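> tool_call: predict_assembly(chains=two)
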Amino acid sequence: MALSPPIGGANEGGLRRRAWWVAVAGVLALVALVWRIPGAAQGVVPGELPARLAAATTIFLGIFLEAIPFLLLGVLVSAAIHLWVSPESIRRLIPRAPLPAALAGVLCGLTILPVCECGTVPATRRLLAKGAPLPFGVAYLLAAPAINPVAIASTWIAFNGNPLFVGGRVALTLLVALIVALLLGTDAPERVLLPAAPGDHHDHEHDHGGRGARRLLALARHANDEFFEMARYLIAGAGLAALLQAFIPREALLALGQGPIWSVAALMALAVILSICSTVDAFVALGFAFAFSPGAVLAFLVFGPMIDLKSILLFGTIFRRRAVVALVGLTAIWVAAGALAVNLFAGG
Amino acid sequence: MNAAFAATPDQRPDRPGRLLARCRDLLEVAILAGTGAMLLQKALGGALSFYLHPRYTGLVVASGGALLLLAAARGRQALGHPGGMARRRGGYAVLLLPVLLGLLVPARPLAWSGPSAAVPGGLDAPFAGSSPEGDPRGWTIAQWRSALREAGDAPGALRGREAEVVGFVRHDARYPFDGFFVARFVIVHCVVDAVGTNLPVSWPAGGQLPPDGWVRVRGRLGTLTLDGRDRPALIASGVEPIALPRDPYLFR
């Protein structure tokens, strides 16, 4: 009579330890192999790429390298929320009424990491899945990239504390985030949000390495799932932004933007295409201050952190397609309205 | 796009199914580890400054390390539970793109001959730099441009002052003259916000210098007539080709 292999106990613990070492060794071997690709530091593609393609590659890698730390932070936060924040806690901490929920979302943008859309999208997705009200999620998503302390500080430095741009950026961001959150929040969540992913992962591993080790493994598992879900949208958005910047002259777009109305539209379009991180876009906006109306510069500062090529694709992981269109459209309308009002009253 | 990326569970896979699941496991580990390796290689190999401000090196290194840890965890997960995990469908080609581009394409900084019209920084483009201080011989192109802008785009008190700048060669067919432009990109955060800045250089046969080649220019500030206007320019006493510098950009 054949004996079945023993289950549980020391034998299983030994197999798991070997699995760890095999996994680590495999990863290190892969890294060593990659590092030793002939001329990896110099690249192996012979000759020079056509100039614009080379520029697109450089810009794409720049966007990717800039964004990946924040995406990783976002997926770790999202995984932590998934594992350790209960729906009951969400219901207890976040108001259910639309306006208080939206205000809570905006306030979270001031205080809670991560700062740009690469990080806020995974976190928002997880909070909404745990039962956070829709106005809270939309307000946090739109406001967090622009009104976090780092973005406010960089705007202050770039514009020498000019209240029109520093205060205007915060005020218009708050206003637009609240309005859009309340407008979208009136719709039923099932009409706005994508259905939840089919259950949590059923993980049959029982790591007896200790409570801490088990928690870290679970965190890594869920972070991996989030990473594979989010990263492809970041990469697609970065690729599109890079191609547009390399092949469409920026000056052509800027040349269209003369006058108090078209200047607002031109800089809003440029903000979407450039997809610059909100922590430094103030310095880029400063370069436009000489040639464009104050309202147009403000529109660049407010619209860019909310809506760009990366975030439009990332929103598709949370919202249904028509909701993404509504989100982008409503945000554009209200930012433009605010910017035009600034031009009208402040002169531009 | 979401439908293509939805996860589907494998239920009691047969041999081809198990093989496919194993391949997916390996691919996901390779994507995570390859991306982490690419980040570390860029940061520790010195090429990161072609894409990002050097102050973000630590963040990129930490991200590379985190990805390697995630790769190890994914590998352990796959070894401990072969063929029984929920699987993602598709999109792996997109996820491999940064790894392949980062490792296989030579790292090169932005060149003006690439998106030349896509980057503001022509002769008359405004440059919002800070006021320079100290000996002008140590000024960069960006600092010269700031100083000249403050002086109303005229040499003024700076006429005749010695200058020594490093930059790449740029030719502009709109401004034919016996010389070239010496240029640099100024970035705040990453190449996405790059703004070009340049100075005309009077130098015999300067028009024959290869575009995007790096040079060190020594000379004095004077003027050149370009497009019917007198413009501040470097009257070069020496132009020396140099290798691509480790930090090709000027940082704000």
